[in-house]
Amino acid sequence: MKKIFTLFLGLAVAAVSMQAAVWLEENFNYPDGPLEQAGNDELVVGKWMQSLKPADSLGVSPVVANRNLTYPGYIASAQGKVAVLDAAVGDDNTTQRISVYYLDTLGARDTVSMYAAFLMKPLSAKNTSGRDFAIWEGSVTSSMCRGRLFLAKDGSAVKVGVTKNSSSISAWSESLEIGSVNLIVMKYEVVEGASNDVVKVWVNPSLSKTEAEQTPLATTDNATDMLVKGFGLRQRGNGVEIGGLRIGTSWADVVKSDGSDTPDEPEKPEVDPDIYAIEDFEYEAGSAIEGQGGWVVSSKPEEQDGLSPKVGAESLTYAGYGSGEGGALVLDSVAQEISGNLKRNTVMPFANAKLATDEVVYTALLVHLSEMNSTSGKDIFTYLKQGTAESTGTTMRGRVHVKIAKDKMVFGIHKNSQEITQWSDSLDKAETALLVVKYVNKSTGSSNTPDEFYLYVNPDPAKTEAENAAKMLVAEGNSADGGTDLRYLCFRQMKLNATFDGIRVAKTWEKALNYKAPSPEAIDNVQGNQVQYTKILRDGQLLIIRDGSIYTISGAKVQ
Description:
Elements: E1 22-26, E2 33-34, E3 48-50, E4 63-65, E5 82-85, E6 97-102, E7 114-124, E8 131-137, E9 145-154, E10 157-163, E11 171-172, E12 182-189, E13 198-203, E14 217-218, E15 230-235, E16 239-248, H1 251-254, E17 275-279, E18 296-297, E19 310-312, E20 328-332, E21 344-349, E22 360-372, E23 378-385, E24 395-405, E25 408-414, E26 427-428, E27 433-440, E28 452-457, E29 472-474, E30 488-493, E31 496-506, H2 509-513, E32 524-528, E33 531-538, E34 541-546, E35 549-552
Antiparallel strand pairs: 1-16, 2-4, 3-6, 4-5, 5-16, 6-15, 7-12, 7-16, 8-9, 8-15, 9-10, 10-11, 12-13, 13-14, 17-31, 18-21, 19-20, 20-31, 21-30, 22-27, 22-31, 23-24, 23-30, 24-25, 25-26, 27-28, 28-29, 32-33, 33-34, 34-35
């Protein structure tokens, strides 16, 4: 995955909760004594408190002790103090207790996985069947554990096990010595569908390897899914010390080295301030795009039908356009359970602050359409203002529309709901099209001077915007509907099959198109839609020979 976000002030985008971030760095720097800082009569965010479920709020709070845990290379090693779980608390059901740190500010994140890394020093274990001591919490009104980490006696040592919810352990670690300090990573992994999310645990993973390079313990029980609302420490007959807790949305953020055990990192490439985002979909083929790289479902309930679009293995290409390697974004109405007029909007932020007046954004992308059930056409792409947690509405502006009939397709653009009167030249449906959507910010209000939108279909990447003027379509509605604060890109899954790739969002035409001269030997034969044609490169221009005639890539006959 190659993705760039830049802020107007040179900071990294962090405004959306779905992006990778450390949500909690907890080194237990509290006064010695009870860990809990609030009662359970109401929800308290950002403090340790006893569970809201009466059966899990018995006994007494864990205590903070003035010592720390050391683990070579871990960034939170030897930091702060420890939280001590007492083996005498929770020895039976009359004293069991869960202490929870609620992360309610995360909001609804049903497509984002969560990670917790922490240091664990086992002091004693209750029995060989195991008792849980760390959990993911899924409710702010009662106890809903999904992701339970167990400690069990293993001869003179201990071992840890994991389940999603049941007390039947899915997998066990190797033996760990009493008194040893161990690095534990717990992941609540969101999987598309119902009752199939997975909880994974790594015991003493390598700090120099990625998540994919290491094998976790994983759950097998299929309890119902949840949204992670907090993290809990459970006193249930185990003696344990906990330190260096880090909670976030990616492995790289929580499993972080202090640099003592790894070589110096190579210098990071300089971020181009004129580029908002580059997306080549370098993710696992077949995976849901939502929850990766900042992609999320729209916050508007009626735009959440069906399932997330998937990552395709094959990338799209267009002569001269500077798209990179990787996969693609695949919209498949059948596989993603879209039917009738139901729709799903999948969005990605390209900015986290309001654009300046008259600031311009160019979004270049490749699209290949394979099926559509309506010759009247469908929206496929738009800029969007995402609703907040308090207001889940969305505002769309600059909506790209496509119509397909008799194996031909045309594109148009409208600002909002206007009828499109200007369409692109007709293209073969088998063709991959290059689209450039231009957004001129005129106002962030709903009235006053309106924002403006333009669409270029199959422009020549080697030429300037002015030289591609004949390719430009003006959005119907540019003189109406006012402006709005647009910060997201949105792809619309309706009754439509389409593939998108090579997204570049930039402040200038040149940075969005990123012209790359085609290779002189770029000659091949392509079988598409039962029509045989040949691509040739002549005088730097990619042309198509079909039925004895020569056409430009956009279908204009030149000979």
